[in-house]
Specification:
alpha/beta; 167 residues; 46% helix
């Protein structure tokens, strides 16, 4: 397991679902991430705010190989993710659509993937698991929307593309 993903849990849930029972959505997400982790062979941490759990103390547990972190009362998932970026830096891939967290993660060398983009990767992995397909059968194809003399993406975009190939 070479890649390390840190996921803003409620941010991802907000992008991918309509509001239902938050605990059920959280458990479903963790189950889906466990499938993703198994297929893509990545180390995966998902961080949830205490706000929606009613917990006063933080907790850390592992469910089906996925590290699940709940913040303490008054602490935000953003703070935990930023702390991981501070210590892990360039080796991390951060999944969030929060601009502040994304900018901080990128400034520390982490690759940032938007929640909507990651949902596509997650759905593809779930489909492969359902169909029993080998995830290594086809490669991620780079698509450039640039026009003009240079079709080569910028440095940050190339890092993101390379990281996506591994995910």
């Amino acid at each position: 397991m070479s890649s390390r993903l840190v996921i803003d849990g409620y941010n991802l849930i907000g992008v991918s679902s309509e509001f239902h029972d938050i605990e059920e959505l959280r458990d479903d997400l963790i189950s889906d991430l466990a499938v993703y982790r198994r297929l893509r062979r990545v180390k995966l941490t998902v961080v949830f705010d205490a706000t929606f759990t009613g917990r006063l103390t933080g907790s850390r547990e592992t469910r089906d190989g996925v590290e699940v972190v709940f913040t303490r009362g008054g602490e935000r998932a953003d703070d935990i993710i930023k702390d991981r970026c501070r210590t892990g830096g360039g080796g991390l891939t951060v999944v969030t659509s929060d601009r502040d967290v994304a900018a901080y993660a990128a400034s520390r060398g982490a690759v940032v993937i938007g929640s909507g983009e990651f949902i596509g990767l997650l759905e593809r992995a779930l489909y492969e698991d359902l169909k029993g397909e080998d995830p290594d059968d086809d490669e991620y194809e780079e698509a450039s929307s640039r026009k003009g003399p240079s079709k080569k993406p910028g440095k940050m975009e190339r890092r993101k593309i390379n990281r996506l190939k591994k995910l």
